[in-house]
Design a protein that fits this description.
Length: 450
Amino acid sequence: MQSTATAASGLKELAAAAPEGRDRYVDFLRALSIAVVVLGHWLMAIVYVNDGRLDGANALDVIPGLWLLTWVLQVMPIFFFVGGFSNLVAWRSVRRRGESYAGFMRSRVSRLIRPTLIFVLVWTAGASVLSVFAPDSLRSLAHGTELLAKPLWFLAVYVLVVALAPVMIALHERHGARVVVVLVAAAIAVDVLRVGFGVPVVGYLNFAFVWLFAHQLGFFYGDGALLRLKKHGFAIGAVLSLGLLGILTGSGIYSPSMVGMATDKASNNSPPSICLMVLTVWLVSAVMLARPAITRWLQRPRAWVAVVAANSMIMTVFLWHLTALLIAALVLLPNGFPQPRGGSSLWWTWRPAWIGALTIILAAFVAIFGRFERPRATRSTDVATSRGTGVVIGVAALVAGLAGLAQFGFGHMSVPSSASMLLSQPLVDAALVLTGYRLLTTSERHPIGG
């Protein structure tokens, strides 16, 4: 009880310490976007245990028309949008203080990757233990461990976007909307080659072009340009983008779903397509329309404390929510939790209870690992000392390690008797993540006043 009260008191102090001019709506959108991703994954997952084996499907592939929800629930563009806002503000602050690019990267990546590193190390260690003592169990869980690592693709892309932020900000300050036009044109060219001419490998360039587009729009929010637009401008943007999205998906060229489906001819998500750019315009228009009302609500002390609390654990929630799903499937389903046919009325009836159970399990993970996300108090001033080469290598290692885990999961360990186990994909990827983190957060500590 005392620790709970202390935590609540700390959150209230943190909320009260927010600067007067802070845009609270950015914090709200950041928490909301991750919460919607978690809910979407939990909602769309159909899991069964058949003859002792874990099996499952995507509700989007089973329930006709459910793809329409992805036009609202695919909110990763909003996370990149508010990331653009935050990175613009942070980079300008760094320049005013005369600090280095290394310091900027350290401040932007450290809190993001610290809880990620814990997640990666815990799961890599767990998979290594299973590979030695229960290799059959690891093989049966290989698909599950691959799925729970999938969200790491987002972190790989986001680290790359943060690394490019100073360059993109300079382009924004010099060329404004022309940068956005170039990104759109580049994404269209990639889609023409990928879809029209059957050159799939070029599609991966859109991981940069599409997400940099969402990030670039955040600069217009950060410098106030979006705030000068009238309400009807955002309404027109929402209507036109929804119309264009309908035309693109109705053409038969693109999937109607904004996330992956087994029946996709051309995915909109992996790799991203121009449909995600149009979706970004629709979502940004919608959240800017909602901004005045929600900003007023966020002036209420309880509402703001709730947003601060959510942001203090948001990466931990994101990282562990699929682990909670896996644990629930392995523990609850074999012990009598109902497994109705996916998409049936009974399946929908049991959704609230299922999501409630997942929330309880996730809360336990947050209680254990949430402290790694919170800023660490210290009586010293940390000064980043990484040089340009170290930052570049660190970013490359992080991106490669996170992307590798997202692609292959934690289950691809070598057989225990093989000396090559140390070179197993998950161990190599985990080592890359650790190396990248260390290179980007290398610091010297100088006592205050010293």
